Every structure is written in C-alpha cells, then in structure tokens.
Amino acid sequence: MSQDLKDILGRLKYTDDAKVVQQITEQMKAVKNRMAGIRHKFVVMSGKGGVGKSMTTVNLALAFARQGDQVGVLDVDLNGPCVPKMLGMRGRRFAMTADGAMPPVGPLGVKVGSMDFFLEELAPVQWKGPMDLSPVWLGLTEMNVIREFIADIVWGKLDYLLTDLPPGAAADKPPVIAGFIPDLDGAIVVTTPSEIASDVVQKSIAYARDLGIKVLGIVENMSQYLCPHCGVESELFDGDTEALCQALDLPLLGRIPFDRTLARSFDKGMPLLDGDYATLKRYDEIVTRIKALVDYKKIMARQL
Predict the structure, then answer these.
(1) pLDDT tens, 269-279?
(2) pLDDT score at 148
(3) Cβ 226 vs Cβ 233: under 8 Å
(4) Residue 208 within a domain
(5) Does any domain span residue 143?
C-alpha cells in the first residue's frame, strides 16, 4: 500500500460519533467543491458482477471524448479497480499538489481517478482493526475512504464525469455510493440479456429510485456474440431486456454485442479508439441518446 493511500486511511478516525458526523459533513462539502466545474455527472451501475459495466463505462467515456467533450472517469471500486488497466494506464500515479490529487490523463484526453493509482501492482487494499471483527465497521470505513478519495481529486473543468461503481455484494451498495456524487444527472444501468442478471439489476434500480437517484436508461451488454471471422451475430442469452425496460418504464439506450476483438484490446490495455469501428459506433449512438435525454429532462425541469 502506497504512502498516499495510508494517508487517506489515516485521516479516518472513529473516536466518537460527533467527530464522525463532522468528518462526513466536511468530506461531502469538499466533494461538492471539487466537482463544481463538472457540467454533467453520471454513475454507471449494475448491481450484478460480470456484465461488463467497466467496459461500458470506459467506452462511453471515450465516445463522449470522440464527440469533442472534456471527460473524466472515476473508478471507485476499492478492491478491484480495473479502469486504468483497460485504458493502458496501469502504473500511473496521481500528481500530488497543494490543491489536491491531479488525475492522470489517458486516451483521447480522458482524465482518470482510480484507487489503482495508489496501489503497487496487484496489491490489494487490506483492512485492519475493528473491521476484521465487524462487517458494519468494514462498511463504514469503506464508505468513508471512498468519500475522502473523491474529495481529494482535482478534476478542473469537465463536460462529463462517469463514475464506475462497484457491483456490490448486495443491490443497495452501488446506489448508496451514487449518493456521494453531488448534483447527479442520473444512473446508466448495465445488464446482459441473462434472466439472472436482469433480476439483480431490477433490484438495484428499485433501490436507486428509493434513494431518489434518477435512472436514465439501460445498456444491454453482450446482447449477441459477434464472430471475429465472418461478422455474424449470434444470441448468447434468452432473456428479454426490452420487456425489462417496459416494466421499469426506462429507455433501452442501446445494445452492445460481445466483440472479442474489442474485448481483447481493452484486456491488454491497448483500447481501440477508431470511431469508424462498428462496435464503437454503437457506443457513439448511446452517448447521443444520453445527451438527448439530459437535454430533454432539463427542458422539462424548466417548464415545471
């Protein structure tokens, strides 16, 4: 564990309840100040692991960047941060300044904030103390680390910030973390056509709505398998994401096939960036829909 991460962990004190409340209040004020220069903020969530949420996040960020926007990606998965690896940024570090932590800049000018930049290669985050004995203490500490981490990053001026939420062991964890982002425009939910994934994702959406988080729509990932040789698309699952969207009164933002060529490029840290590549065009289409949704919601809000 790096000294910078130790410093963050060292700031968290639980000697009495009053100080904990004060600390959380100060953290949230700092987060709001840090994000004051960001026009639009989204979280990408699923509630179910293995649906390609991080892959979706980075490709949406790159799609925004291809359209000329200033973009940032916030990776708040403490135990399994993977955004830097996908973008070929493994081994990079925050530039620590008097104002805070300056995020490294990746492909197409995308700024990235990730716990991975604090860790040595493949080193895990290890929790010590009372958290070893109580999952409640572990959860409280993890949430405070995330707030402190977000509060330390200096984003500057951005058009869009996409936060890649951890899948969570339960449906409530991602929405709770989403609540840390001030003036959130909404959540983008990733699922696969699998019925198992859809069931868990539906629970996360219900919980997010209970917390007052707007859900912009659903991205169906791994909708089909794209043959790397002939280009033919074949079904992978038998689920029905359109029916899920109708039941939840949400738009289906787009479908992304499982593209082995694209998956391999990000797995090796050499992301495909060519906007003419067929699968990347689908991400561009999703971004266009997201922008239209945000603009429409703003117009409607003004009329109310």
Answers:
(1) 999 999 999 99
(2) 82
(3) yes
(4) yes
(5) no
